[in-house]
Amino acid sequence: MDWFQMLVITFQVVGDRIGAVFGSLVEVPLRPSNKKYQGTNSTFVFTNISSHPVIYRPTGLNRYFTLCNIEFLAIGGGSHFAVYLDGDL
After folding, report:
1. How confident is the model at residue 32, as a pLDDT?
2. 81 burial type by CB count under 10 A (0-12 exposed, 13-18 middle, 19+ buried)
3. Where do the TLDc domain residues begin and end (predicted)?
4. Would you state the pLDDT for residue 83?
5. Cα angle, residue 86 at apex, residues 24 and 23 outer, rounded to 5°
6. Is residue 38 within 8 Å of residue 65, measured between CB atoms?
7. φ, ψ for residue 6, nearest 5 deg
8. Among 24, 37, 36, which residue's Cα sits nearest to residue 84?
9. pLDDT tens per residue, the chain (89 residues)?
10. What is d(CA 41, CA 82) in angstroms, rounded to the nearest whole number?
11. Which pLDDT belongs to residue 9?
């Protein structure tokens, strides 16, 4: 593995028209895959509540951090995704 592949950090930030901001941080290169979750327990999602940042870290109940394919990017797992970005964004 090359040194630059170990240093990849993906930081997504999304905002809407009424001022809500949310996103995620993933510390691995995102590679499209239909079935394989990626990432580490350093992955987290965030939002702003009343203009105060709130960070949601993995609970440790599973290893579903990031799911990425050519149609969408989903962060978080379990019963639902915390962040889901697709072509309709």
Report:
1. 86
2. middle
3. 1-89
4. 85
5. 15
6. yes
7. -80, -15
8. 24
9. 444 445 567 778 888 888 888 888 888 888 888 778 888 888 888 998 777 889 988 887 777 788 888 888 888 876 788 888 888 76
10. 15
11. 72
Instruction: Describe the strand order of the beta sheet including 52-56 as a list of residue ranges.
Output: 10-15, 21-26, 44-49, 52-56
Structure-derived torsion over alpha carbons of residues 76, 35, 70, 65, reported in degrees to the nearest 10:
20
50: amino acid identity, one letter:
S
Q: Which residue has the tokens 């939002």?
A: 47
Pairing of strands 44-49, 37-38: unpaired
**Do 65 and 43 meet the contact criterion of CB atoms below 8 Å apart?**
yes
Q: Which residue bears the tokens 């691995």?
A: 28
| Structural domain spans, the chain | 8-86
